[in-house]
Every structure is written in structure tokens, then in C-alpha cells.
Specification:
Order of helices and strands: HHHHH
Shape: elongated
Largest sheet: none
Strand content: under 5%
Mean pLDDT: 83
Number of helices: 5
């Protein structure tokens, strides 16, 4: 009464999962951490344009080194575009940088990447203090 199924089941097709690449948990965390640090680098570069200083220059270089390491030697794309200079914008950038550094710290701790965790914690501390000083 019923016609037999002539096609393969979707469940048997899923069993042959070797046809697409898989990443390990460590690789996924590397990608996530590199993304957070790249975003932090972009905000740091923007802050460097608005209020240059040796501390931000050093931080940008350290962030670029970590991103390059996490991406297997591929350096991050850097931007030299600066927005209009005004204090509320700078305070907002410091808040955004603080949040990004916090996200990077969480992923670095999960990944047990001491160098990235220390860098992220330092950036959080700097941006917490700088954001407080700018908005006061």
C-alpha cells in the first residue's frame, strides 16, 4: 500500500559530516578573540587620531601584535580616518573600548591566553580611567 522511500534519508546524509571543515573549540576562541581585539584596535586607532599620545600608540601596537598572532601571521586592517573632535564622542569611544576589552578578557580567560588577558585587562583599566576623566 505504501511506496518505498527511494531517496536517502536526511539523517544518513548528516552522518557523512566529513564533507565540510570543522573547527576545534580553540580555533573558534582564537577567531572570537581576534575579532574582539580587532574591534578594540579600531577604537584605539580612532582615539589615537582624536587625542594622540604614546600610551595609546603602544597599546595599538600591542593589540596589532596579538591580532596578528591569533590570525596566523595576518596583520589587522588599520584605519586612519578620524571623526569630528568633541568630548562626548571621546567619552563614548572610551566606554566602547572598555566594553570591547571586557569581552576580549572573557574570551582570553576562557582560552587560557595569558598575554591577551593581561593586555585586555590593561586596556580595560586605561579606558575606565580615561572615560571617567573625560566625562567629569
Amino acid at each position: 500500500m505504501y511506496e518505498p522511500i527511494r531517496t536517502k534519508s536526511v539523517h544518513t546524509m548528516a552522518a557523512g559530516h566529513d564533507s565540510f571543515p570543522h573547527r576545534s573549540r580553540e580555533e573558534e576562541l582564537d577567531i572570537q578573540l581576534a575579532g574582539h581585539l580587532s574591534a578594540l584596535l579600531a577604537v584605539t586607532d580612532e582615539l589615537r587620531q582624536l587625542s594622540p599620545g604614546p600610551e595609546l600608540d603602544g597599546a595599538a601596537e600591542a593589540l596589532a601584535e596579538q591580532v596578528t598572532r591569533l590570525r596566523g601571521g595576518h596583520p589587522p586592517v588599520r584605519s586612519a580616518v578620524a571623526a569630528a573632535i568633541h568630548e562626548p564622542h571621546i567619552a563614548g569611544l572610551h566606554q566602547r573600548a572598555h566594553a570591547l576589552a571586557g569581552r576580549a578578557l572573557v574570551v582570553a580567560a576562557s582560552r587560557a591566553d595569558t598575554a591577551a588577558a593581561i593586555l585586555a585587562a590593561q586596556r580595560m583599566e586605561h579606558h575606565a580611567g580615561a572615560g571617567h576623566l573625560v566625562s567629569a
